[in-house]
């Protein structure tokens, strides 16, 4: 069962932050990954099919980068939230891992925490 960032005590959150700092840094410093995340739908064709094709292509490219270059980083990030080791994450069902990634990226407190850190105290 996944534990959300907001469910962690201060001590737990501190430990988790220390464990995932390096893998998160590896992801956010990958220029190819950042460029793909920042791609937006081209202007023009905004049919449902065009949007679905764009979204699916983006997901495939992100998965390709994440699996080829950051597999261990992803496992290390998921590990403390799911009470598993990175090795156990790698051996579990792929769809379970996808759900864990989805859940973590939809954990508002987790996302807000890292947005705040990435902002580096800049004015909004």
Q: For the report, how would you describe the main beta sheet? A: none
Order of helices and strands: HHHHHHH
User: Globular, elongated, flat, extended or rod-shaped: what is the shape?
Assistant: globular
| Count of distinct strands | 0
What is the structural class?
mainly alpha
Mean pLDDT rating: 88
Straight-line distance between termini: 35 Å
Strand coverage percent: under 5%
Q: What is the helical fraction, as a range of percent? A: over 70%
Radius of gyration: 16 Å
Per DSSP, the total helix count is 7
Note poorly predicted spans. Answer: none
Structural overview:
By secondary structure, this protein is mainly alpha-helical. 73% of the residues lie in helices and 0% in strands. The protein is built from 7 helices and no strands. It has helices at residues 10-28, 31-38, 48-69, 71-82, 86-91, 94-105, 108-119. Helix 1 packs antiparallel against helix 4, helix 2 runs antiparallel to helix 3 (48-69) and helix 4 (71-82) crosses helix 6 (94-105). The longest helix is centred in the middle third of the chain and has 22 residues, at 48-69. It is globular and about 50 Å long. The model has no long low-confidence stretch (mean pLDDT 88).
């Amino acid at each position: 069962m996944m534990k959300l960032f907001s469910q962690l005590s201060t001590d737990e959150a501190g430990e988790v932050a220390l464990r995932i700092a390096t893998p998160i840094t590896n992801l956010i410093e990958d220029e190819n990954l950042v460029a793909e995340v920042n791609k937006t739908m081209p202007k023009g064709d905004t049919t449902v099919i065009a949007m679905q094709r764009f979204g699916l292509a983006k997901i495939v490219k992100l998965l390709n980068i994440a699996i080829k270059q950051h597999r261990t980083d992803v496992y290390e990030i998921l590990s403390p939230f799911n009470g598993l080791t990175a090795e156990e994450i790698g051996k579990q069902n792929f769809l379970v891992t996808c759900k864990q990634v989805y859940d973590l990226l939809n954990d508002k407190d987790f996302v807000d925490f890292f947005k705040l850190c990435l902002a580096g105290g800049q004015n909004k």
